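Today's session is about reading a structure prediction critically. Students often jump straight to the picture, but the first step is always the sequence itself: look for stretches that repeat, for charged clusters, for runs of hydrophobic residues. Only then move on to the predicted structure, which in these notes is written as discrete structure tokens rather than atom positions. Here is the chain we will use throughout the hour.
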Amino acid sequence: MTEIDWAGLRREAEQVRERAYAGYSGYRVGAAAVTEDGRLLTGCNVENASYGLTLCAECGVVSDLHSSGGGRLVALACVGGQQHSPPQPVLPCGRCRQLLAEHGGPGMWVDSPDGPVRMDYLLPDAFSETELNR
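Below is the predicted structure for this chain, in token form.
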């Protein structure tokens, strides 16, 4: 694993978590990631009254990736919790695991409550462009 400042990523995720829009559940999530060229990206969850249209913090990170020039994600830290509770490391949901696999690949690192794990551990045999070319 390349040198990742996990404490720094968690701090960034905690800061952006404070700007989350969690008006329905009160569950605020912040995510911070680093790209292979060293850019720091962030995102926070944005809830919607229909819940199904809610944007996860990881969606914001991927949007930030492309709006800042593209590239590949190397590592991501995500923290969450109720509005007035201390943030805790949380793992991406299934939808976000697929999204992150697309933009970081199987070797991308994701922080977990037990320490960093690779994307291919979180989402083995992820659906990819290779299936589209069969």
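Discussion point for the tutorial: The mean pLDDT is 95.
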